Amino acid sequence: MENPLSSLLPPIFHFTELTGIHLMLLVGIMMFFGSFGGRLFQKLKIPQVVGYIVIGILIGVSGLAVLGKNTVAALNPISTASLTLIGFLVGAELKIEVIKKYGKQFVGILIGESITPFFVVWILTGTVTYIFTKSVAQALSFGLILGAICAATAPAATTDVLKEYRTKGPLTTTILGIVAMDDAVALILYAIANTISAPLLGGNSVSLISQLGAIAYDIFGSVALGLAFGFILNLILKNIMQNEGRVLGFSLGTLFLCTGLCNSLGLDNILSAMFIGFYMTNFAHKKTSTMFKLVEKFTPPIYVLFFVTVGAKLNVWIVTPFIALIAILYVAGRTVGKTIGSRLGARITGAPESVRKYLPYCLLSQAGVAIGLSIAAGNDFPDSIGPQIMLIITATTFIVQILGPICVKYGVTKAGEVGLNVTAEDLMKTAKVCDISIKSHIICRPETYTIVNDTDTVGDIIRSFTHHENTNYEVRGSEGESKGKLVGQISIEHLKEAMQIGEMGETLLAMDLMEKPKVTCTPQTPLPEANQLFTDYDTDAVCVVDEENHPFGILEKFAVDHYIHSRIIELEHKLAKMEE
């Protein structure tokens, strides 16, 4: 069926080929509207990656056809670069101590979530194909190839959701481990399925040993190349860590150089990039750890372009009733198989409850490897099941790329891992002054803070130390226009000076000691902004007031530090309980 939406825009907006004149315009359209879609879907509490893909569908071959088929194909380098960065950052999470701790769990779940859907999809799609075609050979081959392809899980959309929601915990660790490895299982299953199907369908018959040899070359060659580039990158970076610009330049240059060599040698660029990250996080100089943060800051615009391109490739107008039925069975069988397999593997290996319950929701996305294998099937069986395989994988990719990220968000949210992967800087960014509390002293409850009147004596203020931890006090006026408003600030140093006078010092009034506040803020002031005031005004206490300048409490530097430290400890305890 021809795309009925493509005629809604005049031909001038249909870029059938990518030329230098149009490149900046297209990139601008993709970046701007992709970012807009991501933000819109975030507001709707839907992962931003879905918004990127939807925008891609709207402007791609299924929608307004702003991006034509040839143009989308010309944008493949963007996809390659994005997948390289994703592989690199996934590798950064594969620490040796994590692998030692979860290695048995990873392998058990990997086998279950790969092999089980293989058999479920094989049986379901093979049976229905036989009902339609009455051909045992075609039904068997169809089911085998689809079963092999369904084992793969796309890391891109999944890891984007984990990054967006700052997740951390046993479920997140397991997801990263599984999506990094199950593509290799899918390749092996496809080799076996291809070897069985080729003689049945008269396709290009290649021995299983030859195919497994090619897979071994792909896997071990990619790993070796990645480790070699990781070693080289470490040698370079440990001498230039003080220059962030050079660190980012060498890091990206190494990644893309490795990717180019992988393409030339027929190796897997994602796997190679992953092992560069693996080497850097486990064997590189400790100072190089900041390199990951720099690369991660570079990735958001690349991800926007990548997922818009993914959406633009999907063509929903080529699906026939038979393809639609098989696609539905494929998605259903793959979902059921991965659910049963991952839960069974998790139970056998003694994985935490959160992994057993919610991992299936995080394994639905498919893209790069699945599409690549479908193209391989198209080349291997061009006159039989190949074209249908390509249509089915295209159609199902459309479905799972939309639903997959939503399910990932649901899984990690229910597992309680959202917002746990944060640093002190992250906590600071999201907090306000009114969030700070020290035991019973809460900024938003002024009655719990020591706010003294200007007529209170030093003796009264000193005796209040037994009830409060404040070392600074706000002073409010008691008469005239200043009544109830902030008029001054007293520190512990002021009190010490008064006590040096002797007994007379206790009779001094607050108005005799106070000084004018250097700076004030409100309870709604962002914490980073309030924290900067300590440095800007060379003070360890900032007066908090409301809009009418009524005293609201003292924000002290140690209180901010205590708040951040307490939150970090709280998150660490929560993570420790999850792993029990």
Task: Describe, in short, the structure shown.
With 580 residues, the protein is mostly helical. It has helices at residues 20-43, 48-59, 69-74, 76-92, 96-133, 136-149, 155-164, 170-201, 208-237, 244-265, 269-282, 290-313, 321-348, 353-358, 368-380, 386-414, 424-430, 458-463, 492-499, 510-513, 527-536, 557-578, and strands at 437-438, 441-442, 451-453, 472-476, 486-491, 520-521, 541-545, 551-556.
Task: Report what the structure shows.
The chain has 580 residues and is mainly α. It has 22 helices and 8 strands. The strands form 3 sheets. It has a 3-stranded mixed sheet with strand order 3-4-5. A hairpin with a 2-residue loop joins strand 1 and strand 2 (441-442). Helix 5 packs antiparallel against helix 13, helix 7 runs parallel beside helix 16 and helix 10 (244-265) packs antiparallel against helix 11. The longest helix has 38 residues, at 96-133. The model is unreliable at 438-448 (pLDDT under 50).
Topology, element by element:
Blueprint: H1 20-43, H2 48-59, H3 69-74, H4 76-92, H5 96-133, H6 136-149, H7 155-164, H8 170-201, H9 208-237, H10 244-265, H11 269-282, H12 290-313, H13 321-348, H14 353-358, H15 368-380, H16 386-414, H17 424-430, E1 437-438, E2 441-442, E3 451-453, H18 458-463, E4 472-476, E5 486-491, H19 492-499, H20 510-513, E6 520-521, H21 527-536, E7 541-545, E8 551-556, H22 557-578
Parallel strand pairs: 3-4, 6-7
Antiparallel strand pairs: 1-2, 4-5, 7-8
